[in-house]
Amino acid sequence: MGLFDALGALFTLTALFAYLNYQYVRLPTPIGVMLAGLLFSLGLLLVGGPAESWAQELVASVPFEEVLMQGMLAFLLFAGALHVNLDDLRRRWLSILTLATLGVLVSTFIVGSGVYYLAGWLGLELPYVYALLFGALISPTDPIAVLGLLKRAGVPKDLETLISGESLFNDGVGVVVFAVILSLADAHGGHAEASLAAVAAFFAQEALGGLALGLGLGLVAFYMLRRTDDYSVEVLITLALVSGGYALAAYLHTSGPLAMVVAGLLIGNHGRAFAMSERTREHLDTFWEMTDEILNALLFVLIGLEVLLVRYTPGYLELAALSVPLVLAARFLSVGLPIGLLRLVRPFAGYTVRLMTWGGLRGGISVALALGLPPGPERELILAMTYGVVVFSVLVQGLTIGRLARFAAGR
């Protein structure tokens, strides 16, 4: 199946699932279309025959890791950052920075160590460095899933800023940590040995380089927007900023996700206030909100369909099921420890750790990173665990975070 045919089928399925969800179920669109895609895939697996073969060919024709990590992610992160208030982030900068760095590292090692011992207990072979890879790809909360569902969850504003800010930045940090561990696994066949200086240099190039690139490109775009008074040209400038900026980040070996977050924050705050007319703001908001909604729907349908590629051999299902409480426990500790330290300098609501634990959703980025691993038994095992955690996260946590938020806030 050609790429255009596959995309045509994917858009058709997405529109159909979104329509059925709107007419009959009325779940949040990302959850509704993902659930529909998952049920559709499971139905095809049960029926088998030509229908299953067609669906597997469809999924194989759309390279999920490439489509998300080298395409959709740039637009989704920019669109998400565009509507985050920079003043709110500044007030919470220390908390967000701590959670996005220390929190990710703590969770990576807790999950990695836990999975390593659980795999051994179940008689499965998983080198420690690959267990850490799973920890790195599953620890960051997914901004695409988080931002889309927080809008509807009724989370208190201060906590919403903390969760959304953390998800925007820990995604980039998590991808960098994943890349560092993957390079160790590739170089040493699963036995990690590398100098601390080399790891620090790689991390600095990716993370700090991404932040600097996003700031520089955002300032260039801001200057161009300020000198233009034509909304169609201004929307085109933001498109060039996202697509060209992300490609440039890849060429310079810096973090594209972090660059897009910084650029989105700059344009969404200073650009909106000082470089756009009211008419341009309306058109820009409409364009990027529509882009965000459409790409989100496509992404979550793809996640639902990816079950066709997951292989659950003996022991895999058990480890995937055990990974869910392990990841939640790691999330609780990786949030609770930093928040406990930060309480020494500023107050937090009593429900902060509980809501941040349950509201830390995982999504397409984790699946994409797992699919991008080199072929082998470790990849299949990590993919099975990742898919299990993501499905639980989006369907169970995503559907209940609103109720938990209202209960915690006493509403």
From TrEMBL:
Its main location: membrane. It is found in: Cell membrane. The keyword Cytoplasm does not apply. It comes from the Bacteria. This is Sodium:proton antiporter. Keywords: Antiport, Cell membrane, Ion transport, Membrane, Sodium, Sodium transport, Transmembrane, Transmembrane helix, Transport. It comes from Oceanithermus profundus. Belongs to the monovalent cation:proton antiporter 1 (CPA1) transporter (TC 2.A.36) family.
